[in-house]
Amino acid sequence: MGIETAWPPLKRARLSSSRFSGAQVETVSDGIRVTYADRPSRIGETAASLCALIEAEGHLVFLDPEGSVLLDETALETVEIQWQDETLTHMGVSFRLNEAGAATLAEVTSRLVGQRLFMLLDGEVLAAPVIQTAVIGGHGFIAGDPYMTTEQSLILATDIADRIRAKPLPVGLETESEKDIN
Questions:
Q1: Torsion of CA 110, 112, 115, 120, to 10 degrees
Q2: Cα separation of 94 and 114, whole Å?
Q3: R_g of the chain, CA atoms, integer Å
Q4: Looking at the structure, do residues 53 and 15 belong to the same domain, yes or no?
Q5: Same domain, 40 and 68
């Protein structure tokens, strides 16, 4: 995957949920250029923080209520946004797991109906749905809050799906220059 196709979901997943939401990003011949305005006294700190955020691992884990790791991102085959039910009023996130992930999730969700399954991305809780029924066959669905509007559920589902699909950039980053523009 080239940098042009890797960057859009990364920008949304990493930058839009951070203090760097106003960063301007452009593709240049040998990589990307990120421009972000901050107070002059914080330029070095800002550049380092921005690079660290973009280079984050993108490590996804599924945890049981006791905090034991059940699955990681290698078990995921697909992640999609779908309507939650036939009323077409709420969106959710549908996912499919590989064979090993499906077997693990079936066993775990059979035992934990009524409890939460935690999804962490780089150590941050991304979603913590209550298990409604055993997830058999490797296909699962994360439903949104029934009290949300259609638009709110679409925004939430899109954010979760984008963040799950986000991968680290296939290149390292280094600060080329820092400028104080008055």
A1: -90
A2: 19
A3: 19
A4: yes
A5: no
Range of 177's domain?
A: 1-58+166-182
Distance of CA 11 to the CA centre of its chain: 11
Task: Enter the pTM of the model.
Answer: 0.62
Secondary structure string (H, E, C) spanning 71-116: EEHHHEEEEEEEECCCCCCCEEEEEEECHHHHHHHHHHHHHCCCCE
Which CATH number is 135's domain given? Answer: 3.30.1360.200
**Segment 130-161, tens digit of pLDDT:** 999 999 999 988 887 777 788 888 877 877 77
Burial group, residue 124, by CB count within 10 angstroms (0-12, 13-18, 19+): exposed
Neighbours of 20 (CB within 10 A): 19
Query: Which residues lie across from 124 on neighbouring strands?
Result: 121
Q: What is the pLDDT of residues 60-82, one digit of tens each?
A: 889 999 999 999 888 988 888 88
Closest CA to 90 of 174, 8, 154: 154
Q: Which residue has the higher pLDDT, 15 or 108?
A: 108
Domain count, the chain: 2
Neighbours of 78 (CB within 10 A): 10
- Find the mean pLDDT for residues 17-45: 64
Look at residue 1 and give its three-state secondary structure. Answer: coil
